[in-house]
Design a protein that fits this description.
This protein has 311 residues and is mostly helical. The chain is built from 14 helices and no strands.
Length: 311
C-alpha cells in the first residue's frame, strides 16, 4: 500500500465528498432547475476533465464503438441515474435518496444472479435483507402523491444505475478510464440539457431567482463531487487494496444521513432508520463476501467505476 497518510486522505475524500453530494443536490434544486443544472454540472466537469487530459498529452480520440459504448453508459449512469436522482430530490429528503442509492451494489448482485453467475449463498441472503430494508424506507414514505413520485423516481434511477454498472464491463469502452468518463459526462450533459428544454425547464429559468447557496452547491457538485472525488477514487484503485476501496459503498449513505440531519434538519424515523441499518449491513456483508470468495475467470466482480457510485 502507498504511504498511509495518502491512502487515508484519498479514502476520506471519497467518503466525505461523495457522501455529501446528496445534500448538495438538495440545496441546488431549491432554486435551480433539476435537469438543466445536472446537465450543466456534467458539462462543466466533462469540459474540465477533457482540458486536463489534453494538456497532459492524452488523446480523447476513440473508435465509434467506444464512443457509442461510452454514450450508452453515460446515459444509464449519469443521465437516467444522477439526472433522475436530482429530479427526485425536489420531492424527497437527501438522506432518503442516499439510502435508496445504497442498494445499488445489492441490485447488481441480483442482476449477476439472474445472469447465472456464481454468487455465494451468504451474499444472496444479504441481498434479501437489504431489499427488506429498502421496503421499510419506501413503503412508509408513500404518504402523498409528491413523495410517492419522488420515491418512484429514486428507485427507477437506481435501477438504471445498476444496469449501467452491470453492463459496463461488457462494453467496448476506451482503455483509458478518464477518457471514457469524459465522453460519458459530455453525453449525459447533452441528454439532460435537451431533456430540460423539452420538459419546459428552459422556459422557466429565472437567473434572478437563483440563490447563492444553490449556485455554490452546484459548483461543489461539478468540481468537488465529480472531479476531486473521481481523482481520489482513481488513485485508490491504483494504490490501495480493493477491499478497502469499496468500503465507500456503505460509508457514503451514512455520511449523507448525518449531513442531511445536521445541515438540512432532515428527520429519520425509527422505521427508516432500521431500513437504513439493514441496507448498510447488507452491503457490508456483500462486500466482505465478494472480496473473500474465489471466482472463476471471467466472472470476477470488477470494482465499480467512479461515476457509478456518486450522485
Amino acid at each position: 500500500m502507498a504511504a498511509r497518510w495518502k491512502f487515508l486522505i484519498a479514502l476520506w475524500t471519497v467518503y466525505i465528498v461523495w457522501g455529501s453530494t446528496y445534500v448538495a443536490i438538495k440545496i441546488s434544486v431549491r432554486t435551480l432547475p433539476a435537469f438543466l443544472s445536472a446537465g450543466l454540472r456534467f458539462l462543466l466537469a466533462g469540459a474540465v476533465l477533457a482540458l486536463i487530459l489534453t494538456l497532459s498529452g492524452r488523446s480523447l480520440r476513440v473508435t465509434r464503438k467506444e464512443l457509442a459504448s461510452s454514450a450508452l453508459l453515460g446515459l444509464a449512469l449519469l443521465g437516467l441515474g444522477v439526472g433522475v436522482v436530482t429530479l427526485a430530490e425536489t420531492r424527497i429528503d437527501s438522506s432518503t435518496a442516499a439510502m435508496i442509492v445504497g442498494t445499488v451494489p445489492l441490485q447488481v448482485i441480483v442482476l449477476r444472479t439472474m445472469a447465472r453467475e456464481r454468487v455465494a449463498l451468504a451474499t444472496q441472503l444479504s441481498v434479501l435483507v437489504g431489499l427488506v430494508g429498502l421496503a421499510l424506507i419506501v413503503i412508509p414514505g408513500i404518504d402523498g402523491s409528491s413523495n410517492a413520485i419522488g420515491l418512484a423516481l429514486m428507485v427507477g434511477a437506481t435501477v438504471s444505475w445498476s444496469l449501467g454498472s452491470f453492463f459496463a464491463h461488457r462494453l467496448p469502452l476506451p482503455k483509458d478510464g478518464f477518457v471514457a468518463t469524459t465522453w460519458e459526462m459530455l453525453t449525459a450533459a447533452l441528454f439532460l440539457l435537451v431533456l430540460g428544454s423539452v420538459t419546459g425547464e428552459l422556459g422557466d429559468v429565472d437567473p434572478s431567482a437563483f440563490s447563492l447557496e444553490s449556485v455554490a452547491a452546484w459548483l461543489y457538485l461539478g468540481l468537488a463531487g465529480t472531479l476531486i472525488g473521481f481523482t481520489a477514487y482513481a488513485w485508490l484503485l491504483r494504490n490501495a487494496p480493493i477491499s478497502k476501496v469499496v468500503t465507500h459503498q456503505y460509508v457514503n449513505p451514512l455520511v449523507a444521513i448525518v449531513l442531511g440531519a445536521v445541515l438540512l434538519d432532515e428527520q429519520i424515523t425509527l422505521t427508516t432508520g432500521i431500513g437504513a441499518a439493514l441496507i448498510v449491513g447488507s452491503v457490508f456483508v456483500a462486500v466482505q463476501q465478494e472480496g473473500a470468495a474465489p471466482r472463476a475467470p471471467g466472472t470476477a466482480a470488477a470494482p465499480a467505476r467512479p461515476a457509478d457510485q456518486t450522485a
